[in-house]
Amino acid sequence: MKEVNIVIEICGSAGEGTISAGEILSRFMSSQGFEIMSFDSYPAEIRGFGKCVAHTRISSNPIYSPGKQADVLISLNDKHSISQLSALKENGVLIYDSQPTKPHQEDNSVAGRANPGTIPYGVPLGMLAQKATGNTRGRNMVALGALSCLFHLDKDAFTESIKARYGKKKQIVIDSNVNSFLEGFNWAKENLKKADAHSFEDVKRPKHKEKLILNGNQLVARAALDANLTFYAGYPITPATKIMEILSKELPRHGGVLLQTEDEIAAIGAVIGAGFGGKRAMTGTSGPGFALMTEFTGLSVMAEVPAVIINSQRGGPSTGMPTKTEQSDFNAALFSGTGDCPRVVLAPTDTKSCYDATVLALYIAEKYQTLVVLLLDFFLSNSIKNIDVPRKPAKKYLNANIAPKADELKDYKRYRFTKNGISPRSIPGTPGGVFFATGLEHDEYGRPNYSETGHLAMTQKRFDKYRSVLSEAPKPQMVISEQGEYDIGVISWGSSAGAAHEAVMTARKEGINAASFSSVMLSPFPESAMIEFSHTCKKILIPELNFSGQFADFAAGILKRPVEKLNFITGRPMASEDILQKMREM
Questions:
Q1: Within 10 A of 284 (CB to CB), how many other CB atoms are there?
Q2: Nearest to 327 by CA among 495, 491, 476
Q3: Quick check: 443 pLDDT over 60?
Q4: Residue 153 has pLDDT above 90, yes or no
Q5: Where are the beta strands (DSSP E) in 139-181?
Q6: CA nearest 421: which of 468, 453, 367?
Q7: pLDDT per residue over 73-91, tens digit each?
Q8: Top-confidence residue, 523 or 206
């Protein structure tokens, strides 16, 4: 049995069904037992008519990154697809409309602009869609039909998958899509002679089991509900809006409340208010909104009130590039705000860990009575992966508030000094648990106290609590070997970690002695673990999606040694191929 690892891109204009076709392809391949990872790019405008690309990687082995270049490009729009040809591999497959409704101007045909070595398959997409439905809207389904025939996919199973996708639509919609698909399949079978080597026939597949096909935003919302979230406040902003859309329907069904506020400042204010009242509360935003929220983040830390902020990073600065991915809010997440303001920062490294990190964020915020920032990015928020069904949170993660005992309420000190910095927290309404809460520096009762010794003691308390969070940190993810010494160590964070781990695994097959390290916990950071790892590496490489190397500078300060930076701000996710090439050069 052979293995398969292929990247298929569908390129078109907004409104041509590009993204829908990519989703249908991904879900069908998952249903056939393959691993899938898909990532879509589209215009920032709500009603834009720009370029859309549905990028899907399909493999019979585990997938850690989306893949940089495509093996197959399906063109639904020649103009946009011409600009996508640079992402098609040498000897890649091009499926295009051989009979467009409007003749192309000179040099505007994607087939004419294809690189030498490209294997083209011309299919009359528009004509076949017109034949199937009476209009050309089904060109995307015709293209999937031709693809299915060329690559030996199960026609009947694919047809059933299309029916399931449109099952809630009217029968005419279901029939139109199925008929368009079958027209493409049958025409390709009768008219195309296969000239490429790609095939899903007799391919080794992983043992099939129930899997969820979700993106990071969907998993964040699912995890929040499973972890007893009771209040969400937010203001719509790409790429975090989907979290609020899901919770607006689901949270009330779980006995919670969702509030759409007038801006991001009001959202974080409402979350802190709910947290003060003893509710598990969260908000979601992106870089521009997070900048506004920093006005309130210090209050969460000073008053020791639980609050969780999801920051799904986009290209910046300012409003930047709303539908492009970047990792340029690292410094903002860790260091923004006034004064010494320690906060916990978690950064999921893949789709699956979006669930686990959300559960952990709500737990830590409640137990340690502090601000937790969860750093996603556009890629993690929107990329789709088929994953095993997550385990529901353990009981300890569902109710973590440390309440005062009866004898502690006789002379209740809300901010009592303790060994780990965590003071028993009285929820408003607790008999005898009345206390002062303020953004001012205070004593153990919460009363304002501006003395030198008082400020020092309380600052030390907050940092003691912050450092004790490390005991809750997930173990760093590492790709290492028994020999324990390496020529190159790759240290990564967030969504770049998957590409880094994959690059290292590929490099080792090429004979490069390499290892990788990443941590979901960014603040407080597991410094000793990273230092121990770096001692086994002759050189350190740190790839990330920002221009200045924010995490690299942070890590170099801990390691006290030079590191090699690899930085991209293309708006696309990190590619394992780029990391591998840099490792070869090093």
A1: 33
A2: 495
A3: yes
A4: yes
A5: none
A6: 468
A7: 999 999 999 999 999 999 9
A8: 523
What is the rounded CA–CA span in Å between residue 375 and residue 330? 8
Q: How many angstroms separate the Cα of 269 from the Cα of each of 158, 287, 301?
A: 49, 17, 13
Q: Which two tokens stand for residue 356?
A: 């686990």
Q: Are 139 and 95 in contact (CB under 8 A)?
A: no
Distance CA 86, CA 419 (A): 59
CA proximity to 518, closest of 385, 274, 380, 347: 347
User: To the nearest whole number, what is the mean pLDDT of the chain?
Assistant: 95
* CA distances from residue 451 to 61, 172, 416, 447, 495 in whole angstroms, order as listed: 61, 75, 17, 12, 44
Tell me the C-alpha distance between 180 and 137, whole Å. Answer: 9
CB neighbourhood size of 231 (10 A): 21
Q: Where are the domains of the chain?
A: 5-209, 214-397, 406-471, 477-585
pTM over 0.85, yes/no? yes
Decide if domain 214-397 falls under CATH 3.40.50.300.
no
Residue with token string 């350190």: 540
Place of tokens 């978690």: 346
Pairwise CA distance, residues 355 & 545, whole Å? 22
Could you tell me the fold of the domain covering 477-585?
Rossmann fold (3.40.50)
- Give the list of residues 6+ apart from residue 113 with CB closer than 8 angstroms, or none: 82, 85, 107
Same topology between domain 214-397 and domain 477-585 = yes
Helix (H, G, I), strand (E, B) or coil at 202: coil
In angstroms, rounded to a whole number, what is the distance separating the alpha carbons of residues 425 and 305? 9
> 5-209 in CATH: which number?
3.40.920.10
Provide the β-strand partners of residue 346: 374, 521
Give the tens place of pLDDT for each residue, 382-405. 999 999 999 999 999 999 999 999
Q: Is there a cis peptide before residue 524, judged by omega within 30 degrees of 0?
A: yes
pLDDT at residue 14 in the model: 86
Q: What percent of the chain has pLDDT over 90?
A: 93
Other residues' Cβ atoms within 10 Å of the Cβ of residue 133: 20
- The pLDDT assigned to 42 comes to 85
Phi-psi region of 15 (alpha: psi -120 to 50; beta: other; left: phi over 0): left
The secondary structure of residue 32, as a DSSP letter, is T
CB atoms within 10 A of CB 101: 11
End-to-end CA distance of the chain: 36
- Establish how many alpha carbons lie within 13 A of residue 313's alpha carbon, considering only the half-sphere containing its beta carbon: 30
**Helix, coil or strand: residue 161:** helix
Q: Are 243 and 236 in contact (CB under 8 A)?
A: no
b/e for 398-435, b at 16 or more Cβ within 10 A? Answer: bebeeebeeebbeebebbeeeeebbbbbbeeeeeebeb
Instruction: With cut-offs at 50, 70 and 90, classify the pLDDT of residue 232.
Output: very high
CA distances from 42 to 14, 80, 137, 463 (A): 7, 12, 19, 43
- State mean pLDDT over 331-351: 96
Cβ atoms of 332 and 290 within 8 Å: the answer is: yes
Q: Which residues pair with 257 in a beta bridge?
A: 231
In the predicted structure, residue 1 carries a pLDDT above the cut 70:
no
Query: For position 46, what pLDDT does the model report?
Result: 59
